[in-house]
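#dry-run=false #mode=assembly
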Amino acid sequence: NAGVTQTPKFQVLKTGQSMTLQCAQDMNHNSMYWYRQDPGMGLRLIYYSASEGTTDKGEVPNGYNVSRLNKREFSLRLESAAPSQTSVYFCASSDGLAGTDTQYFGPGTRLTVL
Amino acid sequence: GENVEQHPSTLSVQEGDSAVIKCTYSDSASNYFPWYKQELGKGPQLIIDIRSNVGEKKDQRIAVTLNKTAKHFSLHITETQPEDSAVYFCAANKALYGQNFVFGPGTRLSVLP
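#status=ok
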């Protein structure tokens, strides 16, 4: 039982390049999330997927797109990377969107945009 | 929407001493408050949580207290050990954007041997 896995662990991009961050969970969770973590700012929600086939914007969605490929997988795409997107990205999953559903986090992807 | 503040941003304690981290929230409708621990190079991991119908919850060396009137909650770690060194995040539910939680900015705890 691997929990939440993310690939890659590290990535360096040049401004304007595109890339997709992959996330998968094996806990049969319905809901999945993408966060970014910047120093002193905690975790900020980029996008989330309440269930397979649905996605919704979070607090900071500009510059990103997501795809809920199936129940297990939720990808985050940067179409044209910018230095402001340098951050650590975390994927998480939970049983549902209920206010007491625990979120389980992956190990993160450290992205640097030059 | 919910807003969560967390203090202090950094905390250093001697091994064996206690550590306290405090969070305040703004939305009186929030009713669930988890705490996450993030070790270096890893994702956040839930360590304890509390619901609004209780004032305190304890799990071995860690405890969380909640004051609904004042809208603040605190994490208490007793008999700290070097492995307690990490970044701790508090969170509150009833977020604006439909996700479960809004997170505080984090506290970096260092336990000095």
